[in-house]
Design goal:
It is a peripheral membrane protein. This protein is of the alpha+beta class. The protein is 62% helix and 14% strand.
Length: 181
């Protein structure tokens, strides 16, 4: 079974617990901290993946490092240790956040542009695409990419809206080539 499928199962379980207790925002904040710790501390990953370290030692270490998180977040981490699945922590966090956002009508978008977008431009993109996607809120992450030349490329989930000059030129070229045949 792939890691993403397994991560989704853990995320669904934690999401259902959080929904039942109405603490999804708290769980998201905690999971983002957990994710940052795992992302930025390579020695932690090495320690937790070391077969010579007992699961009891790993659990005790996790309890001490994440002593301020909720019982639900801590229990999820401890369960991942029991199941030898600490390698899916990042995927589980991403899946949880995606589920939480979806349940609240929120989507994340990466907007690639040649320069930093102004607040007005960002707001216009949010309004247009939130309506188009039938969601409440669109969170925009602006990524400056000088190779774009002009226009925008927007990625929301697995959908890509490409209005860059480069893509428009390719389409024009294809039309000209097929028209000349």
């Amino acid at each position: 079974m792939s890691n993403s499928v397994v991560a989704k199962r853990y995320a669904v379980a934690l999401f259902e617990i959080g929904k039942g207790k109405s603490n999804l925002d708290q769980l998201e904040e905690e999971l983002l901290v957990v994710s940052d710790v795992f992302k930025n501390d390579e020695s932690l990953n090495d320690f937790l993946s070391n077969p010579r370290v007992s699961s009891g030692q790993k659990k005790e270490f996790i309890r001490s490092v994440f002593k301020d998180v909720s019982k639900d977040t801590l229990n999820t981490l401890l369960l991942l240790i029991d199941k030898r699945r600490m390698d899916i922590v990042q995927d589980t966090v991403q899946e949880f956040i995606a589920m939480k956002n979806e349940s609240r009508g929120i989507a994340e978008a990466n907007v690639y542009s040649v320069r930093e977008l102004t607040e007005d431009e960002t707001q216009q993109i949010q309004d247009v695409f939130a309506k188009k996607m039938m969601i409440n809120t669109l969170r925009i992450n602006n990524i400056v990419d000088p190779s774009i030349i002009g226009g925008l490329k927007i990625r929301i989930g697995n959908q890509i809206y490409d209005g860059t000059v480069q893509t428009q030129l390719k389409r024009l070229e294809q039309k000209l080539v097929t028209a000349n045949k």
